[in-house]
Design a protein that fits this description.
The structure holds 2 protein chains of 2 kinds.
Chain A: H1 5-26, H2 32-42, H3 53-81, H4 84-97, H5 99-108, H6 112-128, H7 141-144, H8 151-157, E1 165-168, E2 172-175, H9 176-188, H10 205-232, H11 236-253
Antiparallel strand pairs in A: 1-2
Helix pairs in contact in A: 3-10, 4-10, 5-6, 8-9, 8-11
Chain B: H1 2-22, H2 29-43, H3 53-64, H4 67-75, H5 84-103, E1 113-116, E2 120-123, E3 126-135, E4 138-149, E5 152-160, E6 163-164, H6 165-198
Antiparallel strand pairs in B: 1-3, 2-3, 3-4, 4-5, 5-6
Classes of the chains: A mainly alpha, B alpha+beta.
Chain lengths: 254, 206
Amino acid sequence: MRIRPFQLCLWLGLALMAAPLARAQQNPPPDPATREAVDDDEYAVVKVYDPLEPFNRAMFKFNNGLYDYVFRPVSTGYVKVTPVKVRDGLGNFFSNLVFPIRFVSDVLQGKFKRAGLETKKFYVNTVAGLGGFIRISDGVPSIANIPGEDLGQTFGVWGIHKGPYLVLPVLGPGTARDTVGLVGDYFLNPMHWNQLQNVNGYQWWWDTTVQTTDAVNSLPGRLKLYDEQKKAALDPYVAVRSAYVQYRDAAVKR
Amino acid sequence: MRSVRLFLSFIASLTAFAAIAATQPSDPLPVLRGAVDEVLGIVYSGKAQTQPFSVLVRPILEKNFSFDLITRRAVGPGWRQFTPEQQKKTTALFTELVIRTYADRFEAGAQPGITYATPVELAPNKRELPTTIDYAGKKYSVSYRMELAADQWRVSDVIIEGVSMIKNYRDQFDPMFQRGGAAEIIRILEEKLVQVAATPVPAPAK
């Protein structure tokens, strides 16, 4: 049988068309029921250990009141009198200052390369960024996005269970493990090292002013997050608990 | 004459191949980029907006988000016990809630900077698209799950700093369903939407 060039091209064309179809048949998209079954596993409800739920709900309500009637007026006033660049600069400064928490946590987790990058970032921002007020590291790809670490995450990496869910007054959601981590972070925070006492003319209120500035400066961001969560939530207590547990689980895995 | 016919038939077969290839998009990143750019274009266009953001961004979100799938997964296994009417109503109410709360997140100020990382293939028809959002001096990790269905990539979940939107709602819907079934979920969604409508909408970006 003699094959004409026209027929040859036709067969070639059909073969080319058939290839993707055959590939599609090898990997057929799962039917909706199968897909749902798979995803049910992925998004399955994992019961959060919350034996203190009545106490936690009371604390959650107390914190809501605190946010709305104490923190919000303070935050609104602060935003009005403080330019956004100053607020951003202060945020960068305090974030740079708590470098020891990140560094020690990296080392304790055996993430030595990340600890080195954190050190580089601290020096770059402190030296070139006017003591940390300007986040110069954003322009350096290798140190622009280093995942933050703390002692609570370190305990998680070590395999310590998160323990019962806890809502603390003022501080908000947490777990037993993260609360212990928070105590350790407190001592690793240079703001609590009483270094200002070595400065001539030290007054007791210097430390208080620094710590209050840090707390107040972080308020607008915290309140925005709180408002967004509250607005989207159908059951705010469960929504915040779920978000906290997912957030911390993801942080431990990073 | 023979060579002309040969050439024409070869071109015809290539065109047919290209047409088939075009109906099987393999990269969801341009779809996501396009949708995000469209939303940011509306919010930060600098023009005075006469309508709320939720109205303006609705067509973009409805086109690019798989709200049917998102609602079904957010409700979970209980979805099978919903009647078709309850499923339809829940999807409509939940879609409305997601669009309203998403749109209300935008406020006046600087436009956020978005960096897109390389998509991760989770399955042949499923990708995770990690992004970093730089907003108000802070960086946030936001990943979009996208799924291919009927030749279109659409968002099926948004994971902000490790928190999945679907999982967060599933955790809330589950006790509601245990308590009062589909009717309870619909009642709470309706109540929530009344509450959302009553809260002031942030001023558009200028």
